[in-house]
Write a structure and sequence with these properties.
mainly alpha, disordered N terminus, about 110 residues, two-stranded parallel sheet, 5 helices
Length: about 110
């Protein structure tokens, strides 16, 4: 889905950049007037940044301004925290380095 390079100093910054890109894409597709956007985060820190401006890092202020402007255009936005165990099979497969072709051999 994302083909451009993302420079970041931490996983929180990467997640914020991805959220900004998703909000922009959602609006450009015209979906913002029809369906709600659910933003799932794996960390409560990023969710706190999105919901409470006093928690935001100063160096990310321009990213948050863009996200806030985009979210204000949405019909409805919902924020949810997902837990790492929610995708335990994907994590297990990645750890075992199993390739799809070897799983589905007949």
């Amino acid at each position: 889905m994302f083909s451009g390079l993302i420079e970041a100093t931490g996983s929180g910054m990467v997640e914020v950049r991805v959220i900004k890109a998703v909000v922009e894409m959602f609006i450009s597709m015209g979906w913002h007037e029809k369906v709600p956007l659910v933003i799932e985060s794996s960390t409560s820190v990023v969710q706190e940044w999105l919901l409470d401006r006093s928690y935001r890092q100063w160096m990310l202020r321009n990213l948050f301004i863009g996200i806030d402007c985009g979210i204000n255009q949405l019909l409805h936005a919902q924020f949810a925290i997902i837990h790492q165990q929610g995708s335990s099979m994907a994590n297990d497969l990645a750890k075992a380095s199993i390739k799809r072709s070897s799983i589905f051999k007949a």
